[in-house]
Q: What sequence folds into this?
């Protein structure tokens, strides 16, 4: 998904209700941290620590992922209202109207509904935000290894599936990083 379209979608104002704040926190966290749906569903309150989240990835592999500024604010907003919905003793970070942990299907349905109500023409699902997270990081940093770690991939080849960098980004990275490309460009200026 395009960076600007995703920003417009995420920046759409909501009514400030507990459910709307929860939804915004989920969306921001998916995009900010590149979480899988199962990882977000499994999050408990004690997995959140000072702008980072502890997740249990595929195969039970734990990892820490950063939480961006906007996602952190959305989480803060949600946590201030969560108590109004959560059942007593419920450890889940994200709960539904009945106070229990939100399930996979409920999150997927909610994301589809949000895409429609916020005027997003494209189909939205959690993996799309994960893909956008990876693609946008790679477009700006071109650090495939770092993105691999953030996504929790055991193999670099798995991360490469997420990378559809266009020729302009590849050429710019090449020109900026390769010694012969830099010399050629420098000598072209004379």
A:
């Amino acid at each position: 998904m395009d960076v600007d379209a995703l920003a417009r979608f995420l920046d759409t104002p909501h009514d400030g209700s507990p459910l709307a704040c929860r939804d915004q926190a989920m969306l921001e966290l998916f995009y900010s941290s590149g979480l899988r749906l199962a990882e977000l569903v499994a999050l408990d309150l004690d997995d959140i620590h000072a702008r980072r989240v502890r997740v249990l990835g595929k195969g039970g592999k734990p990892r820490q992922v950063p939480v961006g500024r906007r996602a952190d604010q959305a989480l803060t907003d949600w946590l201030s209202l969560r108590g109004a919905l959560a059942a007593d003793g419920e450890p889940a970070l994200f709960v539904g109207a009945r106070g229990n942990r939100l399930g996979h299907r409920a999150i997927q349905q909610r994301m589809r509904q949000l895409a429609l109500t916020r005027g997003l023409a494209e189909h939205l699902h959690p993996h799309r935000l994960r893909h956008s997270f990876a693609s946008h990081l790679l477009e700006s940093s071109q650090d495939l290894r770092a993105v691999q770690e953030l996504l929790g991939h055991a193999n670099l080849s798995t991360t490469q599936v997420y990378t559809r960098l266009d020729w302009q980004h590849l050429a710019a990275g090449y020109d900026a990083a390769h010694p012969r490309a830099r010399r050629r460009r420098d000598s072209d200026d004379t």
Notes: The chain has two domains: 3-134, 139-188. The beta strands are 48-49, 52-56, 62-66.
